[in-house]
Amino acid sequence: MLLFSLKPHCKLTFLVLLLWVSLLVGSNSGVELDESLTYIWPLPSEFTSGNQTLTVDPALSLSVLGKGGYSEILKEGFERYKKIIFKHASGISLFQKLRGIRSVYDISELRIIVNSDSEELQLGVDESYALFVAKNDGKSIVGEATIEANTVYGALRGLETFSQLCAFNYETKSVQIYKAPWYIKDNPRFAFRGLLLDTSRHYLPIDVIKQIIESMSYAKLNVLHWHIIDEESFPLEVPSYPKLWNGAYTKWERYTVEDASEIVSFAKMRGIHVMAEVDVPGHAESWGAGYPDLWPSSSCREPLDISKNFTFELISGILSDIRKIFPFELFHLGGDEVHTDCWTSTPHIKQWLNDHNMTAKDAYQYFVLKAQEIAISKDWTPVNWEETFNSFPSKLNPRTVVHNWLGPGVCPKAVAKGFKCIFSNQGAWYLDHLDVPWNQVYSAEPLEGINNVSEQNLVLGGEVCMWGETADASNVQQTIWPRAAAAAERLWSKREALSVRNITSTILPRYHYFRCLLNRRGVQAAPATNFYARRPPTGPGSCYEQ
Amino acid sequence: MLHLCGKPHFRYSCLMFLVWVFQLVGLNSGFGLDSGLNQSLTYIWPLPCEHTSGNETLTVNPALSLSIIGHGGSFRILREGFRRYKRIIFKFSSGISVSRNSRRIRSLYDISALRIIVKSGSDELKLGVDESYTLFVDKTEGKSIVWETIIEASTIYGALRGLETFSQLCAFDYTTKSVQISRAPWYIKDKPRFAYRGLLLDTSRHHFPVDAIKSIIESMSYAKLILMHFLSRYLHIQNCGMVLTQNGSAIPSRMRVELSGIHVMAEVDVPGHAESWGAGYPDLWPNATCREPLDVTKNFTFDLISGILSEIREIFPFELFHLGGDEVNTDLWASFVLTDCWNKTRHVKQWLDKNKMKPKDAYRYFVLKAQEIAISKNWTPVNWEETFNAFAKNLNPRTVVHNWLGPGVCPKAVAKGFKCIFSNQNVWYLDHLDVSWDEVYYAEPLEGIGNASKQELVIGGEVCMWGETVDTSNVQQTIWPRAAAAAERLWSTEEALSADNNSVLQRLQYFRCLLNRRGVQAAPVTNYYARNPPSGSGSCYWQ
Predict the structure, then answer these.
(1) Range of lowest pLDDT (A381-385, A454-458, B59-63)
(2) Span A505-534, average pLDDT
(3) Whole-model pTM?
(4) Could you report the per-residue pLDDT of B280-314, keeping only the tens digit for each?
(5) Cβ contacts of residue B148 below 8 Å, gap of 6+?
(6) Which residue numbers delimit the Glycoside hydrolase family 20 catalytic domain (chain B) (predicted)?
(7) Contact call for A252 and B171, based on CB within 8 A
């Protein structure tokens, strides 16, 4: 129907059609996967495979062993993955009837051994696992699939890997595992593998946040950095200061305490931490919608008024309230992009600065350190954007985690001074930078410039940041994926496995494959190789090529 | 974190920031919670045929119960629908764990039961199925005031539409943390203006996983669209003769679709647009280098079409079947391009000469023969308008003409007694990204048709989501919210639609945010190009 329409994309369509036809001619029936590659994303640290093909029973049962085997988290995880693995088989009863398939499956049971019964989810929780899939070798009656892990969270990572081994075969209409037997031994390279979500620039409905958390688990990301509030809007309920969420865009674009708790427990079921951020003293204009006293003046609205006790009482009140929601030990205090003009131009604050013999810069330091103290008093480890480290490293609380963003080279400096560090160099890992191609995301290395092993250990990991200026519920997933997956492999897999010579022939096909896996699971991951991220496909074609 | 970055969108951000500050100033207290939502409007999309409302606010019990009264039949579909809507309505309340013991556990709700009365026991889903319903949220005054919520419908499908409307009356109130219905009592009497309210999904240019198709179908039901025109031109044909769409996965199961009360109309587009068929059966190509239209000379071609149709008849119970027939035009340029293969292939040329046919005669011959096959399978054939434009008087009189090339075709088709579907590409092709929401909204399927009996031949309209530049990553945001504009055009009465632009826009923005809340990636409404990202920070309700 479209050849007649002379719309701009028409020319492209023709071009792509030509390409497609030539592909058809060239490769007979379209895309063939390079069978020598391992289509597991992120790549496990050790694995061996064989050349058998095993069928998996749609009625796959779970048998558990070990102290942690009876965890609800594990049981729900298994049910979740079963739905993912056997998505297809359920929809084709007609064909099954026609064919009358009633065969015996190679794998009918998944055995999961969890050694510890602790479900505590803290930074550095043991996520290692071993996964073994083999055919009946004659000694035992059935083939077996076994996951062994120390914690239930390691078992969840193993389940994800197992689900990626399973693929629906359209010829036999059954789920199969190729290249068996598999022996996989896996653990993450970094403990902190994060994604920042900004719900202030655009409100994201609870369902959307849940979809994002679910998709993070597919790439084994494990920290949701929830940048809940910013200068644009204040969507979160704070019971002690109930007017704060008057700063929401509308009365529907808000999160109740219950919503936030639900997010945290939803994430925990998937082994994902939620690190909340309350960004002070800049980026806080929206706070004043309910409490105008927080503004230096009604015409000069941020940073928060440093001269009033009320400001710090309120911060303490917020932190007390949300401490109950966010059990994760890290808490982000922001501290970035503080422009102190409002302090120096507002008479009562200028007076206060004079009284305390402070420059604006001193006042910034004073504010940040005071906020750190409050966080620490609530038993939180403070995280700050790198500006605080850049401005007054020797004054920062030594427990501070420095969150890099402005550019490369910050983590080396921070760890040299004994601080922990999170890598988010905006040139590579800011997902709103749409012109960063996947291979730049992929090759950004958190440990670059850090050679000393004990200093390397201070790099907790890294985080891709999805700032919300141009991302809302309609396009946030396609802006996050697939590039977040490139960072996820960087953060999970062994450095040696990543530093291959020909990224296009070795990594790219796997990356394409994972993008299509996300699509199959209902995640709107965008085409992988467009020049700008989240752009539509340029024409007809296979997901595996675009 | 972003003000330092000098990326291209920064300028936009600045602009939007100004706009936003301006709004802030205008709204007095800044972060205005009511943000100018006009309370006099009715935020139900599409707008019901008749409705009256009051000014009371009621609370709805999260343990809302359902009772169904009706003539036996299968209410499984209805129960399942109720469960679906309950999940949608009470999305928020479920999270009460932290402050369960703090405030507000209200034991007294105004509405704790929903009664559904269904008159017919049949659950057959065919074109023109009765979708009318009435919905009351009303009080009976005895000793004490009792609120009643009743949906009355002739069929379960009408009841499903009523459930959708009910779900749109319910809104979560963040102050009391409960689901409320405001402006009660409600009295709504509703039915669709057109029986055929379709969305075309092109699964040939990009493959869509089953999950993606399911979520599109689910979202269609929110806008009361009733038909998915399911197109898969590149059929993969297996040796056993079984027919599968690309990768075999793309056919949604019959059950799933019935559950949402949505028809699925399949399309097998012949004789053009069929090159991919020959990947499995090269005999279908005129020759190895010239591959479409399908070889008109061979019995095998028609045997195979017949075989395909037999196979898929069971999957697609809907009475309409789309045979394509487009872009095999017979005007000079087009015939040169598109039936060129017939002229250039020796055995086809010989066959044409022997039968004294020109390519355009052969095109007609092919289309009519395909129509016969479809009719023999008890299907009513639908064809793109080219077949009507080229040989109207030869077309089987049962043919439904599917307009697309431009305006004015349905008037001609119904004048000749054919049924017609309106899809004028200038307004209802969703891949045309430069068509604004109001152009979609104000397109009128009955334009140019004055005679009431002729108007009845227009069975409705369809927005078309061609797949050149949509895949799983962006299909929903290309479909929505503009498909909703057409959905209201097709559902609501003409009088309701003639409201002023601004109030329609507010209601559409509200519906777009409703879609977002339900997890549908509906794009900002007022961007110049459809599916473009928001141009800066801001509320869903403004963008």
Answers:
(1) B59-63
(2) 95
(3) 0.90
(4) 899 999 988 888 889 999 999 999 999 999 988 88
(5) B113, B115, B136, B137, B138, B139, B140
(6) 194-230, 261-493
(7) yes
CATH number assigned to the domain with residue range B196-497+505-542, chosen from the 4 options 3.40.50.2300, 3.30.70.2470, 3.20.20.80, 3.40.50.150:
3.20.20.80
Which chain A residues are closer than 8 Å to B432 by Cβ? 5, 7
Strands (E), B292-375: 320-322
Mean pLDDT of chain B: 84
B70 within 8 A of B107, measured Cβ to Cβ:
no
Ramachandran assignment for A171, one of left (phi > 0), alpha (psi -120 to 50 degrees), beta (any other): alpha
Calpha distance A114→A67 (Å, rounded): 6
Of A251, A258, A521, which has the smallest distance from its Cβ to B97's Cβ? A258
Convert the pLDDT of each residue in A222-249 to its tens digit: 999 999 999 999 999 999 999 999 999 9
* Residue located via tokens 């496995």: A497
Hey, is the C-beta of B218 within 8 angstroms of any chain A C-beta?
Answer: no
CB contact under 8 A, B95 and A256: yes
Closest residue of chain B to A289, computed from CA coordinates:
B31
Which pLDDT score is estimated for A99?
53
For A339, the closest chain B residue by CA position comes to: B3
CA distance A279 to A235: 14
Domain ranges of chain B: 50-190, 196-497+505-542
Interatomic CA distance for residues B58 and B51, integer angstroms? 18
Burial state string for A453-481 with b = 16 or more CB within 10 A and e = fewer than 16? eebeebbbbbbbbbbbbbbbbbbbbbbbb
Cα separation, B158 vs B134, in Å, equals: 9
Tell me whether strands B186-190 and B50-52 are parallel, antiparallel or unpaired: antiparallel
Residue B357, token pair as written in the block: 């046919």
* Tokens standing for residue A238: 């704070």
DSSP B429: B
Look at B326 and A385 and tell me if their CB atoms are within 8 Å: no
Interatomic CA distance for residues A255 and A258, integer angstroms: 8
Q: CA distances (Å), A511 to each of A438, A487, B247, in order?
A: 9, 11, 20
CA distance A251 to A248: 7
The yes/no answer on whether domain B50-190 falls in CATH 3.30.379.10 is yes
Quick one: which H or E segment has residue A63? strand A52-65
Local confidence band at B35 (pLDDT 50, 70, 90 cut-offs)? low
Q: Do B467 and A540 touch (CB under 8 A)?
A: yes
Rounded Cα distance between B382 and B324, Å, is 7
Cβ contacts of B543 on chain A, cutoff 8 Å: 472
C-alpha A306: how far from chain center: 34
Identify whether B327 is a catalytic site residue.
yes
Window from A501-505, B44-48, B297-301 with minimum mean pLDDT = A501-505
Give the chain A residue nearest B534 (alpha carbons).
A470
What are the tens digits of pLDDT across the range A108-143? 999 999 999 999 999 999 999 999 999 866 555 556
**How many Cα atoms are found within 13 Å in the side-chain-facing hemisphere of A540?**
24
Report the DSSP beta bridge partners of residue B222: none
Which ranges in B233-298 belong to alpha helices (H)? Answer: 254-260
Q: How far apart are CA A199 and CA A181, in angstroms?
A: 45
Q: Please tell me which of the candidates B211, B253, B523 has its beta carbon nearest to residue A522.
A: B211
Q: Does B290 touch chain A (CB under 8 A)?
A: no
Flag if A258 and B98 touch (Cβ within 8 Å).
yes
Catalytic residue of the set B327, B372, B444, B447: B327
Catalytic positions of A, written as ranges = 337
For A526, the closest of B473, B518, B524 (CB atoms) is B473
Chain segment A277-316, per-residue pLDDT in tens: 999 999 999 999 999 999 999 999 999 999 999 999 999 9
B522-540 confidence digits (pLDDT tens): 999 999 999 999 999 999 9
